[in-house]
């Protein structure tokens, strides 16, 4: 039997092959959520654009307020969005949060520290100032948040709502992003039946519903891919070769689940080998042992390159986890993301796992009300109940047992699915 | 000044108002990612449908293998997806992972524990069995994963890829989900300029780009909402009232940012009050103090109800966080999700926060390579740099300082944005 391949080594191998797609496209910020920046975003302005008030109150010169109780005429009113004039000496300006500090003023007084008084010829009244201001107080300085020329977002950043807002704040309404990876999805296995085609009570013995197709497609879409679903692999070798050849011409990645175990009856392995190259790995992870990586050269001119091929195990949980831990980083790297490995955090096990495995295990767990992790009772790879119940996995090293109260490494599904 | 309203109280108040939208719709599993189940999913079948093999190997009767080294003729071959016949006594069946265990067999032997021998009349050969099997070994029992009649997914579950796969595995290709909440998005503030309309070098003094619109829209879409963007609120009272009246007729929620601080110049507050009711809250959270909740009755018959109104603070980080902590749970509850509060987990602060605030603070932080949390240097609410840089927030209680190495509560953006 082949030696088991450590997961980290498998990931590193895959990432050396994941050459980022060269071509970028321009999208509006409204359509850019989840996409990956192809170029740096450089600020052509500073934020805030000028010194502005961080409070509703009054702008003054400190020199005019040497002691509490000073009364100053209010010479102007500066709402947010207006510019204001230079502050006449010996006066105060009524000012609101976000409004630019008028030239000459060097402090803002909160309105809670002031008292508006009636009267004064121009109708703006007077203000009594009940504290002594410190120079610079409640002023947000120009460029304090973003300096002109700063790289606000770097190429390779995966955009989330916060980044969309940040890009907008420097005036960008269009962004250059990596194009969507094009992924062809195949299902394989004579036992598979599509939900909706045969009702449960008419399922023939040995048949099971194809569930992998649904979560793989959804996960690919969440990663920004365009997905073509080729359905179930044809049951003849020549037809399989034709389907793979067609898919390779127009896709960056061909993804399949099932048919990669040793000894499995399947048309896809020999078909990939007939068209290109295929490596069969036995991963040192549980669930999720068998995994295939290959390349199918595109016919056409010499520059047309090759489509990547990945074969996931057929068991749903194995398929789900190998996707999350290997395909997801690969697809993100195709889009230019640098830091693609999922992040684990420390958490407390509120369960015991007394039997170590020689493979690195990914146990489906869920946070409980006490802040610890509970283990799903059935860790079989057969159904997705554990993944639907859980909020993540414990990444448990090979040969490691777990006792209650141990600190373990937790990877959240929220992270693996985003 | 009004007393500050604790965040938990504000959320509880909002959730009492978030009556789930009654109407459901049917979507295919392909289109259901992120939606919320309106009805329980009950399994009409058991998974696995029958006892099956969890290994590639041989099915036998234990009584036929009393000791290691027994040689049995191979009487049939059962790939996954086929049914097999009852196992003839004194024979073994070649069997593959997932294939049904033939009647009469009570154990599976891994192929690694067996040796295929040539010969035998029917061409299937013989097998030498090198270990003594235990009854039931390597057999996945019918219904082990899902029993017939079990509630596999409950009403109120928010669907992710794993749930889509799970639903498919019991044969469901269509799901009943809550309809999408319809949200009208308004921006407010005379200082706002839309990115793309004015280039940075031509911005008038005091003007800033509207960034909130971009992340609010993206966050609403992630929560499954239909969003109508009404742009910037008209600058006349009657026009504002008309726009709000129009929006309330066709939307479940009207969301705006800016214009809810005390003393702010704004048309939206009086317009909401002219049409319905409005409560102005001062939240005991930082950033994010001002918040407004109201209702605008729909004109028409008595049953047409009212649209919800929520006014977020205008500062980008305040707007982002009040959305994540208040609007997100509200919108999920409208769709019938029960457990809507974001989950915090314990983490280690690798920073100090020596100055306590009287408000509960949400500090933008990021995990470092050592597994602790680093603090973003600028915690101002003015720009989203901190939210784009960070991977979450520390939820720090009012009056609490933080020393390096302290355990703090962390909420991941991956959770708040999903």
Question: What is the element layout, followed by pairings?
Answer:
Two copies of one chain form a homodimer.
Chain A: H1 7-17, E1 24-28, E2 41-42, E3 52-53, E4 57-60, E5 70-78, E6 92-95, E7 107-110, E8 114-117, E9 126-129, E10 139-140, E11 151-153, H2 161-169, E12 174-178, E13 182-187, E14 192-193, E15 208-209, H3 212-222, E16 226-232, H4 237-250, E17 253-257, H5 268-275, E18 277-282, E19 285-286, E20 290-297, E21 306-312, H6 316-334, E22 345-348, E23 360-367, E24 373-375, H7 385-389, E25 392-396, E26 407-412, H8 413-416
Parallel strand pairs in A: 5-6, 13-16, 13-17, 14-15, 17-21, 19-23
Antiparallel strand pairs in A: 1-12, 2-11, 3-10, 4-6, 4-7, 5-9, 8-9, 18-20, 20-21, 22-26, 23-24, 23-25, 25-26
Helix pairs in contact in A: 1-6, 3-6, 4-5
Structural commentary:
The structure is a homodimer of 418-residue chains. By secondary structure, the first copy, chain A, is an alpha+beta fold. Chain A has 4 domains: 7-23 and 180-334, Molybdenum Cofactor Biosythetic Enzyme, Chain A, CATH 3.40.980.10; 28-45 and 153-178, Molybdopterin biosynthesis moea protein, domain 2, CATH 3.90.105.10; 52-140, Molybdopterin biosynthesis moea protein, domain 3 (Molybdopterin biosynthesis moeA protein, domain 3, Beta Complex); 345-416, Beta-clip, CATH 2.40.340.10. The first copy, chain A, contains 8 helices and 26 strands. Chain A has helices at residues 7-17, 161-169, 212-222, 237-250, 268-275, 316-334, 385-389, 413-416; strands at 24-28, 41-42, 52-53, 57-60, 70-78, 92-95, 107-110, 114-117, 126-129, 139-140, 151-153, 174-178, 182-187, 192-193, 208-209, 226-232, 253-257, 277-282, 285-286, 290-297, 306-312, 345-348, 360-367, 373-375, 392-396, 407-412. In chain A, the strands form 7 sheets. In chain A, strands 7-4-6-5-9-8 form a 6-stranded mixed beta sheet, with no helix packed on it. Chain A has a 6-stranded mixed beta sheet with strand order 16-13-17-21-20-18, sandwiched between helices. In chain A, strands 19, 22, 23, 24, 25 and 26 form a 6-stranded mixed beta sheet that branches. In chain A, strand 23 and strand 24 (373-375) form a beta hairpin. The longest helix of chain A is centred in the last third of the chain and has 19 residues, at 316-334. Chain A is elongated. The mean pLDDT of chain A is 92. At the A-B interface, helix 2, strand 15, helix 3, strand 22 and helix 7 of A face helix 2, strand 15, helix 3, strand 22 and helix 7 of B.
């Amino acid at each position: 039997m082949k030696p088991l391949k450590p997961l980290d080594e498998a990931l590193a191998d895959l990432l050396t092959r994941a050459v980022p797609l060269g071509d970028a496209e321009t999208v509006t910020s409204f359509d850019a959520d989840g996409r990956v920046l192809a170029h740096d975003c450089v600020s052509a302005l500073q934020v805030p654009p000028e010194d502005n008030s961080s409070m509703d109150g009054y702008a003054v010169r400190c020199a005019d307020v040497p002691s509490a109780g000073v009364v100053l005429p209010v010479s102007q009113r500066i709402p947010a969005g207006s510019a204001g004039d230079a502050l006449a000496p010996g006066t105060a300006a009524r000012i609101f949060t976000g409004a630019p500090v008028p030239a000459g003023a060097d402090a803002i007084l909160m309105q809670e520290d002031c008292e508006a008084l009636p009267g004064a010829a121009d109708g703006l009244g007077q203000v009594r100032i009940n504290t002594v201001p410190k120079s610079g107080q409640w002023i947000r300085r120009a460029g304090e948040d973003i300096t002109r020329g700063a790289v606000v977002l770097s190429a390779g950043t995966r955009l989330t709502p916060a980044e969309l807002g940040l890009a907008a704040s420097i005036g960008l309404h269009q962004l250059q992003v990596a194009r969507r990876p094009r992924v062809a999805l195949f299902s394989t296995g004579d036992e598979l039946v599509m939900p909706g085609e045969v009702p449960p009570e008419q399922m023939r013995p040995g048949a099971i519903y194809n569930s992998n197709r649904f979560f793989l497609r959804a996960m690919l879409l969440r990663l920004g891919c365009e997905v073509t679903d080729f359905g179930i692999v044809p049951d003849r070798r020549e037809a399989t070769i034709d389907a793979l050849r067609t898919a390779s011409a127009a896709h960056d990645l061909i993804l399949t689940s099932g048919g990669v175990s040793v000894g499995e009856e399947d048309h896809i392995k020999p078909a990939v080998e007939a068209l290109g190259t295929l490596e069969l790995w036995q991963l040192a992870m549980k669930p999720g042992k068998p995994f295939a990586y290959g390349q199918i050269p595109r016919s056409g001119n010499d520059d047309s390159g090759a489509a990547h091929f990945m074969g996931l195990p057929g068991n749903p949980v194995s398929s789900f986890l190998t996707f999350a831990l290997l395909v997801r980083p690969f697809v993100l790297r195709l889009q230019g993301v640098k830091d693609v490995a999922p992040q684990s955090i420390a958490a407390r096990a509120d369960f015991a796992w007394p039997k170590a495995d020689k493979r690195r295990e990914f146990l489906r767990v869920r946070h409980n009300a006490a802040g610890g992790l509970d283990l799903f009772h059935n860790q079989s790879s057969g159904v997705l109940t554990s993944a639907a119940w859980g909020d993540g996995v414990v990444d448990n090293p090979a040969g490691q047992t777990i006792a209650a109260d141990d600190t373990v490494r937790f990877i959240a599904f929220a992270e693996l699915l985003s």
